[in-house]
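Quick log. Single chain, no ligands specified.
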Amino acid sequence: MFKRIVILLIGLLAMVAPAAAQSESQGAFFTGNYRNVLLEQGWTEAEIQARIDETWNQLFYGDDNTQRVYYPVGDDMAYVLDVNNNDVRSEGMSYGLMIAVQLDKQAEFDRMWKWTKTYMYQSEGAYSGYFAWHTQPDGTKIDANPASDGEIWFTTALFFAAARWGNGEGIFNYEAEANAILHTMLHKSDNGGGIATNIFDEETKMVVFVPTLGQVSQFTDPSYHTPQYYELWARWAEKDQEYWSEAAAISREFWKLTAHPETGLMPNYAEFTGEPRRWGDYGEFFYADAWRCIMNIALDYSWFAADEWQVEQSDRWLNFFYQQGINAYTSRFEVDGTPANPQHRATGLIATNAVASLVASTPTVSEFVKAFWETPIPSGRYRYYDGLLYMMALLQISGNFRVYDPTL
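-> predicted structure:
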């Protein structure tokens, strides 16, 4: 009963929220003005561009064993390697696509997209229309089920690609590919009886952890909530536009439920009602998945400025980490701020915290940006996740992570 009451309240709030969003025109989506926080804080355009180029070159074309995560295959494909686990994930492939389209790197984009369609996409079986989240570097599938965030990022990167480069033939008709993924996300369960579910829960309209029948589709991952992307789909998708607009409002309200009221921390996994969900080793903790929540919040506000709560939340989040020590905070906590062992410093968290500078009003913002700038580009064993978050954070706080509209 409690779950149904909370879901009903979220839905009622979401009915009001889109109207508020429509009246706001200060976000970068409306103005075309993307903040360059690094420039504002004193770095020159030449210094910023040099860092972007250096990061791209290291992660995509650096040393095979210690620097790069992007590995070409033959003449026309490439994959992004999770170096620590020696596998390929839809998360990494979708991040690679997003980085490539933001930097206008069509050749690399097309290589990664062809690898993804060749080895991850499933044209038949229980998960037809979805992408296997997990493969070997040779393309052999490890797990056939999808990870919901992969589909979300694939879709948005494809729409941006259509805007930047135009649509080609076959799998390079980027816009058609994006719409096909969106259709599967919402309509996989239309015929019923299969193991795969929709990527968005039918009752709550929230993204599920894994679209497979059973417990994994009965809770969510707060870092998968990307209303900044749903807002775009509501404008660009061939159908279900009203659904995506409502999903964006629901996710913004969900963040308020799952964020701790004092620390601002969110869990890796959560019930649809917001409470931390125990699953695996770290589900109820603030850890690697949850690092990304502040990046999504900051990006959503910087593009759409739909909810002033996001400014308060960004301040709350940064204040917590500042109290831990700007150069000392570690990476795993209970959501109330209690440290959870084992702990380590993580470049990925340093990077996502810097992105809060797009939104936060706390005077310590500049220290988080400085800490990020002084952090070396990731190399070695953990360069995959840390490196991709580092690259995206750099693009976001330099004003180079932008909306590209395929309808214009």
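The longest strand covers residues 77-82.
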